[in-house]
Design a protein that fits this description.
- The protein is mostly beta strands.
- It has one domain.
- The chain is 6% helix and 36% strand.
- The strands form 3 sheets. Strands 1, 2, 3, 5, 8, 9, 11, 12, 13 and 17 form a 10-stranded mixed β-sheet that branches. Strands 4, 6, 7, 10, 14, 15 and 16 form a 7-stranded antiparallel β-sheet that branches.
- Strand 18 and strand 19 form a beta hairpin.
- It starts with a strand and ends in a 15-residue tail after the last helix.
Length: 294
């Protein structure tokens, strides 16, 4: 028996998003669909939470001292309707994984010095350049940044809205499991590459606008104080400042083919400890249970 997924796409791009439900291929070759369970999206911070349905007592993150730099906050509601289509992964392992670190200008400069790299033009590609990823502002402009010490560092501004954009230069489809601050963009829970994600069509562009709240809307990504970030208000701020993408090839697709010291800036103290936490933020922490927000 092989498993596929139901997929939903944004009408203004050639992309699609995989929902929780699955498709089962019958022995005779027929295709039977099982409806996805209701919900399964990131819950609003404002609406309040009860105990998790899996029977584990709710745990809230302990308050921590305010950290410098940026996190991603829960923004305004944005229309983002979906449609479904099947997709079967070629392998359980990602075809490629990409990681972007973001922060304000002073934080990015400090991070670059921490990893001992020299600035270079910002560019992030999957494997041989078949796919590219960037963070863009509300007007669609790529956010500035550079690569240093093997890291991709993107500069954001407090209050600025951003999107994740993936461009596919190949003739094949790919599935994109995306995370922000260690949280899955689909349901707001601690991210795991094994979950389902978005699809980007051949020669298509996938735009991820925020944490999905329903079949038709998301909560926009906005840079903000670490203490105000969605992660800090749910599971804790350990992994703020990182965007991760696990990229999966489709079965019979292209899988085998080509294709130091204290730093101070604008009142913030970039200690070695803080820079180490930024540098080691995990985009896919794979925790077993999600922790409800306040």
């Amino acid at each position: 028996m092989s498993l596929g997924t139901r997929v939903r796409s944004h009408p203004w791009t050639s992309s699609a998003v995989v929902a929780v439900g699955i498709l089962t291929v019958a022995g005779c070759g027929g295709l039977g669909a099982r409806k996805a369970a209701s919900g399964g999206y990131a819950p609003s911070v404002a609406q309040g939470y009860g105990a998790p349905s899996h029977g584990v007592e709710s745990v809230r993150p302990e308050p921590t001292p305010d950290r410098p730099g940026l996190g991603t906050s829960w923004g305004e509601s944005v229309d983002a309707p979906l449609t479904f289509t099947p997709f079967e992964r070629a392998s359980a392992a990602p075809w490629a994984e990409l990681v972007l670190h973001y922060n304000d200008e002073d934080g990015v400069a400090a991070h670059a010095r921490y990893v001992g790299g020299r600035p270079a033009p910002l560019e992030l590609w999957a494997r041989d350049g078949a796919l590219s990823v960037a963070l863009v502002d509300e007007a669609g402009r790529t956010l500035p940044g550079f690569t240093a010490g093997g890291r991709t560092l993107v500069i954001g501004e407090d209050g600025e809205r951003y999107r994740i954009v993936v461009r596919n230069a190949t003739d094949a489809r790919f599935e994109i499991v995306a995370s922000v601050d260690g949280l899955d963009v689909m349901d707001g829970r601690p991210a795991d590459p094994g979950r389902r994600g978005y699809l980007v069509d051949p020669h298509g562009v996938l735009t991820i606008d925020g944490f999905r709240t329903s079949d038709s809307s998301v909560a926009a990504f906005r840079f903000g104080r670490v203490a105000d970030s969605y992660a800090a208000q749910t599971v804790g701020d350990r992994n703020v400042g990182v965007v991760g993408l696990a990229i999966f090839a489709e079965r019979s697709g292209p899988e085998a083919g080509p294709l130091g010291s204290m730093t101070r800036g604008r009142g913030a103290v970039w200690s070695r400890r803080e820079l180490e936490r930024r540098d080691t933020a995990d985009p896919f922490p794979r925790r077993e249970y999600a922790i409800p927000p306040r």
